[in-house]
Amino acid sequence: MCREKELVARVRSFIRKSFLKVVSRLSISLRNAAFLPLARAKRSLVMMLVVAALVVSLTLTLVTFGSIIDSMVIGSGGTVNLPVDVGFYWDSNCANPVSLVDWGIIEPGSTVDVTVFVRNEGSQTISLDITAENWSPIETTSYMTFSSNCIGQPISPQEILQITLSLSTSPNIEEITSFSFDISVNINPV
Questions:
Q1: Confidence band (pLDDT; 50, 70, 90) for 37?
Q2: Whose CA is closest to 120, among 109, 128, 131?
Q3: Cα–Cα distance between 87 and 96 in angstroms, integer?
Q4: 59-91 as b/e, with b when 16 or more CB fall inside 10 Å?
Q5: Can you list the alpha helix ranges (DSSP code H) found in 34-161?
Q6: Distance of alpha carbon 8 from alpha carbon 60, whole angstroms
Q7: Dist. CA 116–CA 100, nearest whole Å
Q8: What dihedral do alpha carbons 70, 11, 63, 46 form, nearest 10°?
């Protein structure tokens, strides 16, 4: 990062010096152009304007380049509450919504099942595709498999369906002591 800043400072200094030289020569040349023959004066003036335009263009390009090098990225995230026509609950009365599935401690070569209840809170029959995404660490996908037992099953309006979410772990899992992933639910009209 220090090298980049040093390079940008050198480039900016070079541009500043070059621009000042061109501007000072341009003003001297414009004063002297009055003593030149007309054709030669026009040619000199055109050349000076072309050089000035190139210097200005180069300056703007390098200043923009310098701005890019000096920039930084700040990550952001948040939750967007979208109107969803399905609810996930811990109980069949649909009183306790699911906000996080805690898989607990998982032994290599085992499968952990979690039971949840899904209610179609919309006005039309739907089916669900439930998948896992955003695994962390990404290597977890080589050792763990997520599944559910309700893929493609139609759910009528206000119907409550008991489903099982499963997480299977390879007996060869290694170097992963904790993990996380998002459970993605796609709603399909039937």
A1: low
A2: 128
A3: 10
A4: beeeeeebeeeeeeeeeeeeeeeeeeeeebbbe
A5: 38-69
A6: 13
A7: 11
A8: -170
Rounded to 10 degrees, the C-alpha dihedral 165/124/79/131 comes to 30
Residue 177 binned pLDDT confidence (cut-offs 50, 70, 90): confident
Nearest Cα neighbor of 70 from 12, 15, 14 is: 12
pLDDT tens for 135-149 read 999 999 999 999 999
Q: How many CB atoms within 10 Å of residue 92? A: 12
Contact predicate 180/119, CB 8 Å: no
Say what the pTM is. 0.56
CA distance 173 to 178: 12
3-state secondary structure of 57: helix
Distances (CA, A) of 89 to 83, 86, 116, 124, 148: 17, 10, 6, 20, 15
173 vs 41, higher pLDDT: 173
Report yes or no: 175 and 140 within 8 Å, Cβ to Cβ.
no
How far out from the chain centre does Cα 176 lie? 25
